[in-house]
From TrEMBL:
<dbReference type="Pfam" id="PF16859">
    <property type="entry name" value="TetR_C_11"/>
</dbReference>
<keyword id="KW-0238">DNA-binding</keyword>
<dbReference type="InterPro" id="IPR036271">
    <property type="entry name" value="Tet_transcr_reg_TetR-rel_C_sf"/>
</dbReference>
<dbReference type="InterPro" id="IPR050109">
    <property type="entry name" value="HTH-type_TetR-like_transc_reg"/>
</dbReference>
<dbReference type="InterPro" id="IPR009057">
    <property type="entry name" value="Homeodomain-like_sf"/>
</dbReference>
<keyword id="KW-0805">Transcription regulation</keyword>
<dbReference type="GO" id="GO:0003700">
    <property type="term" value="F:DNA-binding transcription factor activity"/>
</dbReference>
<feature type="domain" description="HTH tetR-type">
    <location>
        <begin position="1"/>
        <end position="60"/>
    </location>
</feature>
<dbReference type="InterPro" id="IPR001647">
    <property type="entry name" value="HTH_TetR"/>
</dbReference>
<protein>
    <submittedName>
        <fullName>TetR/AcrR family transcriptional regulator</fullName>
    </submittedName>
</protein>
<dbReference type="InterPro" id="IPR011075">
    <property type="entry name" value="TetR_C"/>
</dbReference>
<dbReference type="Pfam" id="PF00440">
    <property type="entry name" value="TetR_N"/>
</dbReference>
<feature type="DNA-binding region" description="H-T-H motif">
    <location>
        <begin position="23"/>
        <end position="42"/>
    </location>
</feature>
<keyword id="KW-0804">Transcription</keyword>
<dbReference type="GO" id="GO:0000976">
    <property type="term" value="F:transcription cis-regulatory region binding"/>
</dbReference>
Length: 183
């Protein structure tokens, strides 16, 4: 219970102050414990933050709705709904990633990589089924949705909205991935 509170407080302070503005002392005080209790579990601030980020990791299911558009919309749902705290933590850490690359990597591995992998699996499946053009720049196109979602998180400190996701899917992804013959 105390460890969960410590990790939760760490994430809150990270969102409020960024990595450089957050201190172990502030985490301990807000969690109602001492710094020694934190250092018994994590050797330093970066390890504490990485543990707090990893605690947000949730399994992501690869959708199979029966249509490419449906699968892309389901993949987009991860970016448009769900855990607001994860989006804000990701934004805070990506803002500091140039100074602390290990934190940016931890955030991406725990929060960003699972939905990106699900999207890649969807694109591979529909390529194998012949719906997506073999000549399509799949890696580039597959990175658009996560890139725009992360831009929203970092620049706007908010999740991608459903309307923008649908416009991106219908106006950019589907035309770029297919020959225009979708569902």
């Amino acid at each position: 219970m105390l460890e969960s509170a410590m990790l939760s407080v760490t994430r809150r302070l990270l969102i409020e102050h960024g990595y450089d503005g957050m201190t172990v002392e502030a985490v301990a005080k807000a969690a109602g414990t001492g710094k020694a209790a934190l250092y018994r579990r994590w050797p330093g601030k970066s390890e504490l933050v990485i543990a707090a980020v990893r605690a947000l990791q949730a399994p992501v299911v690869v959708p199979d709705t029966g249509s490419l558009r449906g699968d892309l919309l389901e993949c987009a749902r991860h970016y448009t709904s769900g855990h607001e705290e994860a989006a804000l933590v990701m934004g805070a850490l990506l803002s500091d990633a140039t100074r602390h690359p290990e934190l940016g990597k931890a955030a991406y591995d725990a929060i960003g990589a699972p939905p990106a992998a699900a999207l890649a699996a969807v694109i591979r499946r529909w390529t194998d089924r012949g719906v997506i053009k073999a000549s399509a720049p799949i890696e580039l196109i597959g990175g658009l949705l996560p890139a725009i979602a992360f831009r929203n998180v970092v620049m706007r400190r908010t999740r991608l909205d459903v309307g923008t996701a649908e416009t991106l899917i219908d106006g950019v992804l589907l035309p770029a991935l297919t020959a225009g013959q979708v569902d």
